[in-house]
């Protein structure tokens, strides 16, 4: 009986995966015709397929399948983003990236929390918890957008790098505030800073070591014995980087991002890449990242809780509007303007103000808070859903238009 139930579950899961691939392919073609980032169409199609409308896709947020897709999918998309980063560009803007990914998260959380406190009328600690949940940007959304829309190199790579590095800070702040909200302890700035440094350093070291080893085994002139298996090596290393970092209580996403940077800058490490092998690897990475994008954003759309979102709709929209138009601009100008080395122009900072989609990581944090029955978890989840929809549907779709208006678009 158990075997039969397991078989039926396997068949149902396989059917859902088939639906996701078929619908995702058609959605990608539709996005290309409409000339909008495909994540926007994937999200909308997911909402249509979910239990709230057609009911064709119903994978629970706390299921093992959903967690597997989110963890591996986000990791691979982040690895893909890291591989497109150039070290010479990162050297120029690293101060801005570090400051926005750390102090910037605190600024964004504080302003958003204040907005929630006054607009929603929730206790201050709940408002701060909401601000912390929304404070980190989403690399799984931003990386695909910048892969499809060619923006001035240093601006795109700054925003992508920030989104990769700030997930650790966002999680630390969220759980620090949660500890206070649930009476588990008091917030200690010193402990939080040490935790952030530990997570960041371990994530960078693990990603750097595995990235160098992967580059060595793929591209070394004498010892590159795995050149033919480069795509498989990327899969193994992405999983290994995330699991190693997570097992040491550091940022798995940071590890896979740094791994991607190392593999994408093999020439800078002294390795030679054969053009044929490089093309095969790039095609594999591009296809795998596309499939992960389909799965993540169709699932994310299918899991939008319309009833919960409608409960706090007006207040949530007001909070997210201030989050987009006040918190993010304040964060960018306060953190990027003092970086004299980067010499940011007003147009570049204005573009970075608008580009900070909310997606998988804040959604996962909101889901964790619901599962832990944290104070105000329903309000936080509701506003997070609203933020995901507003930022992806409004900001992602206008990225190319704004870049063109600000003369930051690199034409194909």
Task: Give a nutshell description of this structure.
By secondary structure, this protein is mainly alpha-helical. The protein has 16 helices and no strands.
Task: Note down, in words, how this protein is organized.
The chain is mainly α and 412 residues long. It has a single domain (69-405), classed as Na+/H+ antiporter like fold (Up-down Bundle). The protein is 78% helix and 0% strand. The chain contains 16 helices and no strands. The chain has helices at 2-34, 38-49, 64-83, 87-120, 124-135, 139-148, 153-181, 189-219, 230-247, 252-264, 275-302, 306-311, 313-336, 346-354, 360-371, 377-405. The protein is globular.
Question: Keyphrases for this structure?
Answer:
mainly alpha
In terms of topology, how is this protein built?
Elements (H helix, E strand, L loop, with lengths): L1 H33 L3 H12 L14 H20 L3 H34 L3 H12 L3 H10 L4 H29 L7 H31 L10 H18 L4 H13 L10 H28 L3 H6 L1 H24 L9 H9 L5 H12 L5 H29 L7
Rounded to the nearest angstrom, the radius of gyration is: 21 Å
Structural class estimated from helices and strands: mainly alpha
| Helix count from the secondary structure assignment | 16
**CATH architecture classification:** Up-down Bundle
**The CATH class:** Mainly Alpha
Poorly predicted ranges: none
What's the rounded overall pLDDT mean?
80
Shape: globular
Query: End-to-end distance, in Å?
Result: 58 Å
> Which strand-content bin applies to the residues?
under 5%
Please write the string of helix (H) and strand (E) elements: HHHHHHHHHHHHHHHH
Quote the CATH topology. Na+/H+ antiporter like fold
Largest sheet, described in full?
Answer: none
Helix share bin = over 70%
Number of domains: 1
Question: What is the total tally of β strands?
Answer: 0
């Amino acid at each position: 009986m158990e075997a039969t139930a397991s078989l039926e579950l396997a068949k149902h899961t396989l059917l859902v995966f088939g639906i996701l691939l078929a619908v995702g392919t058609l959605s990608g073609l539709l996005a290309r015709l409409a000339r909008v980032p495909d994540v926007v169409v994937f999200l909308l199609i997911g909402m249509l397929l979910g239990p709230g409308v057609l009911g064709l896709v119903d994978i629970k947020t706390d299921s093992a399948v959903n967690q597997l897709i989110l963890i591996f999918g986000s990791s691979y998309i982040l690895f893909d983003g890291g591989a497109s980063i150039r070290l010479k560009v990162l050297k120029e803007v690293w101060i801005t990236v570090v400051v926005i990914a750390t102090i910037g998260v605190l600024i964004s959380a504080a302003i958003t929390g204040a907005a929630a406190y006054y607009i929603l009328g929730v206790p201050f600690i709940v408002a701060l918890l909401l601000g912390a949940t929304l404070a980190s940007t989403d690399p799984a959304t931003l990386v695909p957008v910048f892969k499809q829309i060619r923006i001035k190199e240093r601006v795109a790579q700054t925003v992508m790098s920030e989104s990769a590095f700030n997930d650790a800070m966002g999680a630390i702040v969220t759980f620090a505030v949660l500890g206070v909200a649930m009476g588990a302890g008091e917030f200690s700035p010193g402990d939080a800073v040490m935790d952030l440094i530990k997570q960041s350093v371990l994530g960078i070291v693990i990603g750097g070591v595995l990235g160098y080893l992967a580059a060595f085994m793929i591209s070394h002139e004498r010892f590159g014995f795995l050149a033919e298996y480069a795509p498989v090596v990327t899969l193994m290393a992405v999983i290994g980087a995330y699991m190693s970092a997570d097992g040491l209580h550091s940022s798995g996403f940071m590890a896979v991002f740094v791994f991607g940077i190392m593999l994408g800058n093999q020439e800078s490490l002294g390795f030679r890449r054969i053009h044929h092998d490089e093309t095969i690897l790039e095609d594999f990475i591009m296809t795998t990242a596309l499939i992960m994008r389909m799965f993540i954003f169709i699932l994310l759309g299918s899991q939008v809780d319309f009833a919960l979102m409608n409960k706090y709709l007006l207040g949530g929209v007001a909070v997210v509007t201030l989050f987009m138009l006040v918190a993010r601009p304040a964060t960018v100008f306060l953190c990027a303007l003092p970086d004299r080395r980067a010499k940011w122009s007003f147009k570049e900072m204005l573009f970075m103000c608008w580009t900070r989609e909310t997606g998988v990581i804040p959604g996962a944090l909101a889901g964790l808070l619901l599962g832990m029955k944290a104070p105000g978890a329903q309000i936080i989840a509701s506003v997070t859903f609203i933020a995901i929809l507003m930022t992806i549907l409004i900001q992602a779709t206008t990225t190319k238009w704004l870049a063109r208006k600000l003369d930051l678009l690199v034409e194909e």
